[in-house]
């Protein structure tokens, strides 16, 4: 049975049986796990800024999953026998560094001094006034804030996770990192992290994506990465990167940038991106002595959305709103709206919602925001939908482009086309909110990479 894709049509897939053959002293990337681990003091340092390591809060089972990478029926490890041991070793290492003060101190320093955290929670005054002026109400309307992940080093939220996982790769003795990228933002972040930590880097990228995001291809090469073309898009590049990793387990680390894949990958990416929500909570309390009322993020596979949402999942008075890519429209067949029209299945090693046809074959996704072109979402995002904790909507290509242009002209900020989908949904969301409601939109990346696409789609007449 292939581990890449398993169809589910109303029947549960049995849990992959436990493996008991694993050696006591197993190896990942040539390092003895048994000898590698050392006793670590549990992290308990508290602090109000990134100058000190924040305390880890206790999480309920609802927030954390069942400990085996499952959120309800979603998640798991649907992989070949040969990967069970490496994934278990990776999970052990991940759990270890979560409580290792030395690792957390180094990561906090890197996020602050290298990545540029914390990123601002910016009050978008003119955008707020815009929606107030077009609203039918006479009140003050809601206030719109942007979490400025576009100001992070390399231009997106991807650097948060790339730094942390590159550190894990180095601890495991890996000399080489492989990754897959769509829009190129994860590729650039991975290439930068590998350069910083002296790791060889190979990034797989779909041929169509390389043409659209050529500036990011140049950046990856400038940072020392080898960029390999794969016929197709991000899903195809992901498959090829995984194959490469499987063939080189002794030397190579697969650095996932999305909250998909077999456990522990989704949990790791979510954990390392959760700094976004933790900062947002602290900044909101400083700005208005409270919490946001609504959090809004685009959803491709879900890394930036979970990065913002996770801190607030237990706050039932905070709405979590995800916005998928409707492309040319849900009826066109050219979209990436997995949660809107998808079914449950297994792809790339875990169970989640997928875009698939009646025969269970994966459909080709589409979005003007290349980073949203993935035919599935992460297991935790799938669970948030099924549990009713998060709301999910869609925005078309044209709506995202219009939102990108609007923010550019009103605030002097050019967002990437991916978060522009979240911004586009404000047109429908804002009129439904009370006066004074605090809305935080995750501006997860900057739009330099999308300028060619925007020009091809036609600049507004006022810019010509």
From TrEMBL:
Domain Tryptophan synthase beta chain-like PALP: 117-445
InterPro entries the record matches: Trp_synth_b_CS (IPR006653), Trp_synth_beta (IPR006654), Trp_synth_beta/beta-like (IPR023026), TrpB-like_PALP (IPR001926), TrpB-like_PALP_sf (IPR036052)
Keywords: Amino-acid biosynthesis, Aromatic amino acid biosynthesis, Lyase, Pyridoxal phosphate, Tryptophan biosynthesis
Pfam families found in the cross-reference section: PALP (PF00291)
Entry keyword annotation includes Amino-acid biosynthesis: yes
Cofactors named for this entry: pyridoxal 5'-phosphate
Catalysed conversion reaction: (1S,2R)-1-C-(indol-3-yl)glycerol 3-phosphate + L-serine = D-glyceraldehyde 3-phosphate + L-tryptophan + H2O
Source domain of life: Eukaryota
Pathway recorded for this protein: Amino-acid biosynthesis; L-tryptophan biosynthesis; L-tryptophan from chorismate: step 5/5
EC assignment: 4.2.1.20
HAMAP family hit by this protein: Trp_synth_beta
PANTHER family (UniProt xref): TRYPTOPHAN SYNTHASE, TRYPTOPHAN SYNTHASE-RELATED
Name by which UniProt lists this protein: Tryptophan synthase
Origin organism lineage: Eukaryota, Viridiplantae, Streptophyta, Embryophyta, Tracheophyta
